[in-house]
Fold:
Amino acid sequence: MTQIAAKLEDKLRALQREGEIWAGSVVSVDEDEATMVVLLDDDNQLPDVMLRAAVDDLKGIVLLPEVGSRVIIGSVDGPGRYALIRASQLAKVLINCDQVIINEGEFGGLPKVEALVDKINALEDDLNKLKKVFQAWTPVAQDGGAALKAASATWAGTTIQRTKKGDIENTKVQH
Structure:
């Protein structure tokens, strides 16, 4: 056995004592598996450090630290199982819960971006139709606007649906 492998084996045995806390740097993060590899301060690597407290913990917050950031990890679920406690820098935060309230929710729910974009696009399309009507219209002297009325009849005959708050508001995320 090489000296490095022996040192790693000794270190892993030491890590198996429950309740230990370690500091290190993030080497890599696997978002799909919700794990990371940590380079401990003693230069040993610890693989499969969990990003959440338990493997089957699908609700709650998952912190994805930046590669290279400093982390503190601790023993959970028995010997040899470690999870993230704190990170100096985060690349992403995943939140899976029934409701998120930010700053006491004073401003209501966040917009549903796709629904909001659909509404804005509908308004833009409608405005562009009106612009085309004006571009194609040729004034006719002494007709009292009849030519313009005829040119815009198709456009003017359709109404825009008024947006309701519920059409674009995500009440599960309030700010």
